[in-house]
């Protein structure tokens, strides 16, 4: 095998279950971390979550994924889920009675300690700290909005936490839900093969990660920094630390200031 063809510790997975089967009821997994996703598009799941490490973990029962099809809780023959905004204006709003029924049904199958989160551009910004927090809960019920969003009364009535993926507007909450679940599931015990990589990666210690290199040693005339080829672990660690600090200082002054304050014990 040539250098360029070598795998460097990546896991190959051979799923034996198709995505739908991975998401079906498995009573044997009653205590596995549970993600419920209320959505108008259940077919969007597991999506990328069915691949690679998160897919393998789903297959191994380290977590469970239950899409809750909002349409099934809709009104009347056409299963309507939305209506025009009170007070007028563009678009449609998801009805509180429809979402209420979906939530009541979903919450019967999850620990009351699992938070209810509405993916929303108005919410608190999702970050690694929040992913770590979620990974320590028994699971989560995610509400994916569509159209102009969800009737405020549902959020108030159930004490729903609004969480944003960033300062931009997506068409619906499904992509945001998948990003949030991906970041959380990889932190669950036993999901990532090498726990060290969680400790070293960006944000784990408040810093961005150092640059990474792999074979070939020279590419397009560019060398791997010699210290990384030296075999001297102390020097490698020190080089990575300095790189990590420089990159954080340059790219994210906000993180750098927080890191320095944490070091001073503020
Ligand atoms: C078109 S957006 C609604 C935007 C809403 N009218 C507003 O201005 O805040 C439809 C749905 O996409 C989801 N969404 C859009 N942007 C998001 C973001 N940045 N983070 C999380 N969810 C988002 C939410 O669930 C939202 O209800």
TrEMBL record:
Keywords assigned by UniProt, alphabetized: Cytoplasm, Methyltransferase, S-adenosyl-L-methionine, Transferase, tRNA processing
GO biological process: tRNA N1-guanine methylation
Positions that bind S-adenosyl-L-methionine: 145, 165-170
Compartment(s) where it occurs, according to its Swiss-Prot or TrEMBL record: Cytoplasm
InterPro entries, sorted: Alpha/beta_knot_MTases, tRNA_m1G_MeTrfase_C_sf, tRNA_m1G_MeTrfase_TrmD, tRNA_m1G_MTases_N, tRNA_MeTrfase_TRMD/TRM10
GO cellular component labels: cytosol
Coiled-coil segments on the chain, per record: none
Reactions this protein catalyses: guanosine(37) in tRNA + S-adenosyl-L-methionine = N(1)-methylguanosine(37) in tRNA + S-adenosyl-L-homocysteine + H(+)
GO molecular function: tRNA (guanine(37)-N1)-methyltransferase activity
SUPFAM superfamilies, sorted: alpha/beta knot
Superkingdom per UniProt: Bacteria
EC number: 2.1.1.228
Family matches, as Pfam families: tRNA_m1G_MT (PF01746)
Keyword S-adenosyl-L-methionine belongs to the record: yes
Keyword check for Repeat: no
Quaternary structure and partners: Homodimer.
Cited PANTHER family: TRNA (GUANINE-N(1)-)-METHYLTRANSFERASE (PTHR46417:SF1)
Protein role: Specifically methylates guanosine-37 in various tRNAs.
Family: Belongs to the RNA methyltransferase TrmD family.
Name this protein carries in UniProt: tRNA (guanine-N(1)-)-methyltransferase
Native source organism of the sequence: Salipiger pallidus
Gene designation: trmD
